[in-house]
Amino acid sequence: MHSMVTPHPLRLARRAVMSSLLAALLASSVGAHAQGLRLPGGMSGGGDSGMSSGSGSMISPQVTEPQSPIPQSPTMTTNPRNAQPQQPLRSAPAPTAAPRKSGTQAGDSIAAVVNSEAITRRELEQRIQAATATLSRQGIPQPDPESLERQVLERMIVERTQMQEAAQTGIRIDDFQLDRAIGRIAEQNKVSVTEMRDQIEKEGLPFAMYREDLRQEITLVRLRERAVDSQVQVSESEIDNFLADQNQTAPSQLTLAQILVRVPEGSSSDRVAELRRKAETLLNQARGPSDFARLAASQSDGEEALRGGDLGTRPTDRWPGIFLEAVAKLQPGQISGIVQSGNGFHIVKLVDRKTGTAAGEASAVPIQQTQARHILIRTSEIMPNDLARQRLGDIRQRVMAGNVTFADMARQYSNDASAPQGGDLGWLSPSETVPAFEQAMDALKPGEISQPVQSPFGWHLIQVTGRRTQDVGRERQRASARQAIYQRKVDQQYEDWARQLRDRAYVEVRLGPNTDAPLN
């Protein structure tokens, strides 16, 4: 069974919140490509499943953890895979207000125009308040008010260009999908939606604003999936080379921060030289008495500027090669020289390095796998739960009576992409399918057929056709390598895409008497 490497999406001029989050939050609206039951990152256990490429749609995209969160209350987590309730923070959260619909209210002035839409002074002030509170909670020294205003406005401009792109491509998150997302976030925090709303509002964030922030984040995830993540491919030769390097070198975790001086697309040589001189000035300041985080917050053009330039912690294979070269000989706390990329000039700080041991050959990982077929009937207004369950019950009786085969009924009635293969799912590993499906499947002996089983995708009839013990160590190693390569390529492609989108936009900043000219 082949695996598809496509988005989650990843954080947007934020990066991707993850695709698996969308899959979990929006399961009822997932298209045919995700009707099946495999969870992100699941293993098929080998290429001998007997499934044609057409049933590859059963595999969900591989994903990674997000690098920035969906807008949330400080006491609410949003990852349904491993969420645990967090302890409330002492300080009240600042609203993470996102740009709303264009148009000004009475007495509200325009801070900037992005293509045909306005960002109002009221919106900007809300975001500045949010940024101020965030910097304070993270212990990052505040930049001067003018620099903070400029940084926040630039982040809003980048977001607005991406929301406009989403609208043009027809991406829309309706209230039903949003309500499901909120329900799942409440569920993972082990509270009701009402309790979650009360907690968020108690902390100072209007729930209506929280809803719209969440709607925007999911929209941007969908956009990144379509525009960036789905375009990235990983070849088998890339995986072979990656594993060969891993066997020879000890992997490590790097924590990096950066100051970026962005070079707009199409800049003249004089403009590039001017920006390099700016980068050199910032480098001297960073290596001098200036606080790196404060300097990044006030001067960096990177989307992580208001986090003090913090790029987070990743395995070395997830960092761009030019960053690895820049920090190879540095000790924690030291700062690189100027690093040039397609985005501009980078000043990289090595915050921390943790070294492991060489990977070596893949160790044996024997697991029990189940070979199964299923028939899926999705529910809708014309196919309610009771009718779907009844139909599967009738099909089960006919198969048990020996009048028809399970495979023939799957071809005729299943709504899943596996229908042409008689519902064959191939060999399934533990935790590879959604829990409700796996629990019902594990209770069956080979040859047995389940009663109708409900999952987030609809109602299923399951037939187990075999079981085996399989070593999937090498396959898991290759899957891990594929994901590392994929995520590194996605990160770079996203940066390029976001920069090009921003550079193409018509932007007019109106913050001061001399800023009426378009700024690109």
Layout of SSEs?
Blueprint: H1 19-25, E1 110-114, E2 117-120, H2 121-138, H3 145-168, H4 175-188, H5 193-202, H6 207-227, H7 236-248, E3 252-262, H8 269-287, H9 292-299, E4 310-315, H10 321-327, E5 335-341, E6 344-355, E7 366-377, H11 385-400, H12 406-413, E8 424-428, H13 435-442, E9 453-455, E10 458-471, H14 473-504, E11 507-509
Antiparallel strand pairs: 1-2, 1-11, 3-4, 3-6, 5-6, 7-8, 7-10, 9-10
Helix pairs in contact: 2-3, 3-6, 7-14
Note down, in words, how this protein is organized.
The chain has 520 residues and is of the alpha+beta class. It is built from 14 helices and eleven strands. The strands form three sheets. A four-stranded antiparallel β-sheet has the order 4-3-6-5, with helices on both faces. Strands 8-7-10-9 form a four-stranded antiparallel β-sheet. Strands 2-1-11 form a three-stranded antiparallel β-sheet. Helix 3 (145-168) packs across helix 6 and helix 7 (236-248) packs across helix 14 (473-504). The longest helix is centred in the C-terminal third of the chain and has 32 residues, at 473-504. The chain is globular, with a radius of gyration of 25 Å.
